[in-house]
Design goal:
By secondary structure, the chain is mainly alpha-helical. Helices cover 44% and strands 0% of the residues.
Length: 70
């Protein structure tokens, strides 16, 4: 019987991991950082809107906003 399974799962996974190169870590450029921050702001706005779901809002303006010319 030629096949002998590994008695240790961790050792078997390490054997498999030797054949796959690690994924290189690429630093994020400033443009990508600003895009990521923008997406985080959008996500927080959507979460805030979802938390207010079901409440009736007459206007999309912020409270205290002045309408029309003064």
């Amino acid at each position: 019987m030629a096949h002998r399974p590994y008695p240790n799962v961790d050792r078997a996974l390490n054997q498999l991991g030797r054949h796959y190169p690690t994924v290189p870590v690429i630093p994020m450029s400033p443009a990508m950082q600003s895009a990521a921050e923008g997406f985080l702001r959008i996500r927080s706005g959507l979460q805030e809107a979802a938390s207010r779901a079901g409440t009736y809002v007459l206007s999309t303006r912020h409270p205290g906003a002045v309408s029309g010319p003064s």
